[in-house]
Amino acid sequence: MADDNEVTLTIDGKSVTTPKGSVVVDAAKSIGIEIPVFCYHEKLGPFGCCRMCLVEVEKMPKLTTACTLQVAPDMVVKTNTPNVEKAQKGVLEFTLLNHPLDCPVCDKGGECPLQNNTFKYGPGDTRMEFERANRDKATPSVQLSLLIGSVVSLVNGVQDTAISLNKRVH
Known about the structure:
With 170 residues, the chain is α+β, with helices and mostly antiparallel strands. Helix content is 34%, strand content 12%.
């Protein structure tokens, strides 16, 4: 039985009890279910800009981001439906449109979330029939926006902490 500070929900048919205020991606991780993310970090809190963590939730009309959705009692989440898989493949396909095909010589050396997520969740090929941009480095727009968003989130958290520490009465 869950106490007042815990919530029980179902993710992919598995029951999980997690603290109130947790987000779905962390609840799934606690029971060994991986939901792919690019922009989420548990220490920075919800962000939801990359759209990689879209999941289906019963009684919700559209897919929603698991990294921003707080758990609720009796919530039923599905992470591997055809709609979810189609959305993940679409996000990866869009992200890779003008990404250089340099993975074998990339500086990340196999430690790349984009590469890892593409192998696990991406489409096998592209629907696009055009000449790809030939660049030495990745287009900064997508990667940079994710990084900038994470930095902004971090700065906001630090500012909130600094403000709350500044207002302390000793």
